[in-house]
């Protein structure tokens, strides 16, 4: 038995499914998960000594790769001063200034501890500010494990066959309307009948928790327009795309301004941080100035804030987006070539440093089409890739990430391995 297998056996006795976040359990791809001993740059080293080129990047946060010296130094310096104060601290002001400068739609921002807290608080704020209750979401989008958003949800929820989670009272789910992403007609029809009761629409502008789906021309603008017309709050969930596709996320790439933005992952530089922000007028509804309550003992934690500051400053200094996009595009071309040679129907949606695999004849534009893809082929690819030292997300419903620590040597090696893996499935 390997060390990972032994640890997983012990973990499974004590932790449900052996993991603290379901998608890590490898259930949909088969086998047992490896345990990581250490990580550096583009690579993970398992407790059994296998080195893996990592395209999961801690599910998004590690845009600078693992354990980058500057972030490590920032945390070490903060650590000298204390781990938690429960009072305001100077790091909170510095990171708020950075985030407001980077994300176009933000005038004010509130920090919390995870992406889930960010989306949960954003929809509460939308409801409190509009005094309406309905929230619209899109099938396959995942906004963390928030009660009213675990309806037709992506990520681990769909991976393990429960896109509509148990434990959500019907009355909560009844306040959520679910539409197919990219369906403008359904969007207009819903607003025509219930628009005056819709508090907000939450969307991953590029859904990345069910593979990766890109918007059809005009879809996100239509979303902006109907929200403006009906006085509903448009919430972009940029937990995955924020700071990754541009300093200002998708909203900078496409020039559309949401009313609220939920952030997470990269903003914490590898420590647990979430944030949400938007127009001052809307944000002033939050306690202690307004009636919408939101709080957190560890919110604004000095270690987490200092890691986030270092991560964001590095992005501003490096401006790595063009280079990351070139690497993503190189990966896409190579994977499509390999599939063509094998005669395998494969789509590789890609934008910037994000890409995904859909085993499908046609491009995938919504969740129904995602569910029709060949996930068995993905599981086979995952295993073949692991055998060649390449770590892809252990689910057909997640997205791959490239970091600034990946170089063309890593890509050469990964392309060679993935080409062989595609031929072997
Ligand atoms: N929600 C994350 C993927 N979209 C998974 C987090 C994890 O398992 O660590």
Word description of this protein:
With 425 residues, the protein is an alpha/beta fold. It folds into two domains: 3-67 and 320-424, Alpha-Beta Complex (Aspartate Aminotransferase, domain 1); 69-317, 3-Layer(aba) Sandwich (Aspartate Aminotransferase, domain 2), CATH 3.40.640. The chain contains 15 helices and 14 strands. The strands form three sheets. Strands 4-10-9-8-7-5-6 form a seven-stranded mixed β-sheet, with helices on both faces. A four-stranded mixed β-sheet has the order 1-2-3-13. Helix 9 links the parallel strand 8 and strand 9 (260-263). It is globular.
Bound molecules: (4S)-4,5-diaminopentanoic acid
CATH architecture identity of the largest domain: 3-Layer(aba) Sandwich
Average of per-residue pLDDT values: 97
The spatial strand order of the largest sheet comes to: 4-10-9-8-7-5-6
Rough shape? globular
Q: Which structural category do the helix and sheet elements fall into?
A: alpha/beta
Under the CATH scheme, which class of the largest domain? Alpha Beta
Give the biggest beta sheet. Answer: 7 strands, mixed
Span from first to last CA?
26 Å
Gyration radius, in Å: 21 Å
The CATH superfamily of the largest domain is: Type I PLP-dependent aspartate aminotransferase-like (Major domain)
**Uncertain residue ranges:** none
- As a percent range, the share of helical residues equals 40-55%
Number of helices: 15
CATH domain fold name of the largest domain: Aspartate Aminotransferase, domain 2
What sequence of helices (H) and strands (E) makes up the elements? HEEEHHEHEHHEHEHEHEEHHHEEHHEEH
Strand element count: 14
Domain module count: 2
User: Strand fraction band?
Assistant: 5-15%
